[in-house]
Design goal:
The protein is built from 10 helices and 14 strands. It is of the alpha+beta class. It has 3 domains: about 5-55, 2-Layer Sandwich (Uridine Diphospho-n-acetylenolpyruvylglucosamine Reductase, domain 2); about 65-175, 2-Layer Sandwich (Uridine Diphospho-n-acetylenolpyruvylglucosamine Reductase, domain 3); about 180-305, CO dehydrogenase flavoprotein, C-terminal domain (Enolase-like, domain 1, 2-Layer Sandwich), CATH 3.30.390.50. The strands form 4 sheets. It has a 5-stranded antiparallel β-sheet with strand order 4-5-10-6-7. Helix 8 runs antiparallel to helix 9 (about 255-265) and helix 9 (about 255-265) packs across helix 10. The longest helix has 28 residues, at about 275-305. The chain binds flavin-adenine dinucleotide. The site of flavin-adenine dinucleotide (FAD) has 30 residues, from strand 2, helix 2, helix 5 and strand 10.
Length: about 300
């Protein structure tokens, strides 16, 4: 199919883009990487009257460290995060582990991280990471700028706190210290499918004891989730000796956290090749494995001289 007819504008500044969106309201769509929008327009599931192409707005492609946060502008492409150096320390390592699960290189070279936050697909890797790490979303509207916390931002599949007249200019992530280890594991049917289930984890360990745990669940509900009950079960737990996530004993605290995430935190929805029972099993297994990966990452990070870790 071909898209329905639409008008097209190419603003050069954020205020120009916001003015265009404000004029057209619900009938406008922002064009960033186009990797979701163009497909939906071809299928005529989305029929905008106006497309606001933000690709010529200077500065939106900026990726910068500001104080203790990483600010990701609206035109920073997924592929930038394939290098673990894209962000300092464990945050860059977490992004690099996650990004290779997003589609394939041509899509990653056009699609944007911020576009994923705008689109809010429940299987988006970035949205679950943002939720787990307490990211902030910067939105600009006719009344100026406001900042929405990720925990308040996602309202359901493709539904967010962003108003149709607003442009997201950036997402900000808190940096992670070197006492934090990270993990990301995804399960999907074929390489180019969206995740059936994926898990992001960040464990902060001091003197062998977990001080903070952050677990993000991808496609385990109608929106990205933070596994709060599983996280609480890990606080004060000793990480102990390294363990292979594929041979995790039932009594291990990471296996226990996995079961809690699957039964108390997740609210999985059935889909054609994964019913709810299958998904709960996958969540329990993947949370356990991802926590092992994060604990091992933290050990190797401590063992390396500062600045050497990728
Ligand atoms: C085959 C295939 C496989 C894919 N696999 C995955 C996957 O595994 N995981 C995953 O997360 N994604 C996947 N995607 C989607 C891809 O990551 C997209 O890049 C992403 O969802 C949207 O980013 P974009 O920059 O392309 O946005 P666009 O397609 O340009 O826009 C998407 C939507 O967001 C809005 N929007 C975009 N930017 C802004 C902004 N700054 N402010 C306000 N609104 C905005 C648009 O109006 C539109 O409604 C896949 C896509 C394809 C085609």
């Amino acid at each position: 199919m071909k898209p329905a007819a639409f008008d097209y504008v190419v603003p050069r500044t954020v205020p120009e883009a916001v003015a265009a969106l404000g004029d057209a309201g619900r009938k406008a769509q922002v064009l960033a990487g186009g990797q979701s929008l163009i497909l939906e327009m071809h299928l005529q599931r989305i029929r905008p009257e106006l497309v606001v192409d933000i690709n010529r707005i200077a500065g939106l492609d900026r990726l910068s460290v500001e104080g203790d946060t990483l600010r990701v502008g609206a035109l920073v492409r997924h592929s930038v995060f394939e290098s673990a150096q894209s962000a300092p320390g464990p945050l860059g390592a977490l992004f690099a582990r996650a990004v290779v699960n997003i589609a394939h290189p041509p899509i990653r070279s056009r699609g944007t991280m911020v576009g994923s936050f705008a689109w809010a697909h429940p299987a988006s890797e970035w949205c679950a990471i943002g939720t787990a790490l307490d990211a902030d979303i910067e939105v600009h509207g006719l009344e100026g700028k406001r900042v929405v916390a990720a925990r308040d931002y996602f309202h359901g599949p493709y539904r967010t706190a962003r108003r149709p007249q607003e442009l997201i200019t950036a997402v900000r992530f808190p940096l992670l210290g070197d006492d934090t280890g990270v993990g990301f594991i995804e399960h999907r049917r074929t390489h180019f499918c969206f995740a059936q289930v994926a898990v992001a984890a960040a464990l902060t360990v001091r003197d062998g004891v977990i001080g903070e745990a952050r677990i993000g669940l991808v496609n385990c509900a109608d929106r990205p989730l933070r596994a709060g009950a599983a996280e609480r079960a890990l606080i004060g737990v000793e990480v102990g000796a390294p363990v292979d996530g594929h041979r995790l004993p039932d009594g291990h605290p990471f296996a226990h956290a996995g079961r809690i995430a699957a039964t108390q935190d997740a609210a999985p929805l059935a889909e054609p090749f994964a019913d709810v029972e299958y998904k709960r099993h996958a969540i329990a297994v993947l949370v356990g494995r991802t926590l092992c990966q994060a604990a091992n990452d933290q050990r190797s990070r401590l063992a390396q001289p500062k600045g050497d870790h990728k």
